[in-house]
Specification:
This protein has 220 residues and is of the alpha/beta class. It has a single domain, classed as Alpha-Beta Barrel (TIM Barrel), CATH 3.20.20.70. 50% of the residues lie in helices and 18% in strands. It is built from 11 helices and 8 strands. An 8-stranded parallel β-barrel has the order 1-2-3-4-5-6-7-8, surrounded by 6 helices. Strand 4, helix 5 and strand 5 form a beta-alpha-beta unit. Helix 4 packs across helix 5 and helix 6 packs parallel to helix 8. The structure holds erythose-4-phosphate. The site of erythose-4-phosphate has 11 residues, from helix 7.
Length: 220
């Protein structure tokens, strides 16, 4: 099981990497543009806070086959442990085939139904990002992601699902308990995975009992 953080904000990446077992970081053009810095600077800043074995996902921006391939190749040069994200369109699927043959690792993204994910897997994508919450506008996003996993399993495809576009921990829980290998979490959802006011209340009560008895708030 892999926990991934869906942000390009270096402060948040650093903070969450200290708290959680973060396997990697996903970005997309919208996420990167929020940093108000040149693209290369965003990538180099993220690279500085990530360990070598933590994976970074960077998405192409172009939409035509030739330019997607060019950008995919460029992304592959940015860092050793990097995966190019390519949306599942006709041009994207063609580019996935080409880049896969060149040994470039690909996450097929913007997947809004199970068949899109399945054909991208057949084209050689290592990872698939179904947009769980966005799908909810049309169908049950969690269920569609589970169907995609079943389709991969039925045909012994080892392409990994990285469930994306997650908006609450309920969705995350359902995916994890149904065996989905990876989830990429926006910062607020990553925090909600472990924060609970009842835990804070319990800790406060322990501290108060201790203080009353020993007049200090530490063990030693
Ligand atoms: C991550 O890889 C995706 O780009 C991201 O999760 C999309 O999420 P959104 O639906 O919040 O934009």
């Amino acid at each position: 099981m892999k926990l991934i953080i869906d942000t390009a904000n270096v402060k948040e990446i650093k903070r969450l990497c200290e708290i959680l077992n973060v396997w990697g970081v996903t970005t997309n053009p919208t996420i990167i543009s929020k940093e108000n810095k040149p693209f290369e600077e965003v990538i180099s800043d993220i690279d500085k806070v990530l360990e070598k074995d933590q994976v970074l996902f960077v998405q192409v921006v172009s939409t035509d086959y030739e330019s997607i391939v060019k950008e995919g190749r460029y992304i592959a040069t940015l860092r050793k442990n990097i995966v190019a994200k390519i949306p599942v369109t006709a041009d994207g699927l063609k580019a996935i085939k080409t880049l896969h043959k060149e040994g470039i690792k690909i996450l097929a993204t913007a997947i809004n139904n199970a068949t899109q994910g399945f054909v991208a897997a057949l084209n050689g994508a290592e990872y698939l990002a179904p947009y769980v919450n966005r799908m909810t506008n049309y169908t049950d996003g969690v269920e569609e992601t589970i169907i995609l996993q079943q389709m991969l399993d039925a045909h012994d495809l080892d392409t990994e699902i990285i469930a994306a576009s997650l908006k609450n921990t309920g969705q995350v829980k359902e995916l994890i308990r149904n065996g989905i290998e990876s989830v990429t979490l926006p910062v607020d959802i990553a925090d909600l995975m472990y924060l609970n006011p009842a835990t804070d209340t319990a800790v406060e009560a322990f501290t108060n009992s201790w203080y009353k008895a020993y007049n200090k708030k530490t063990l030693i």
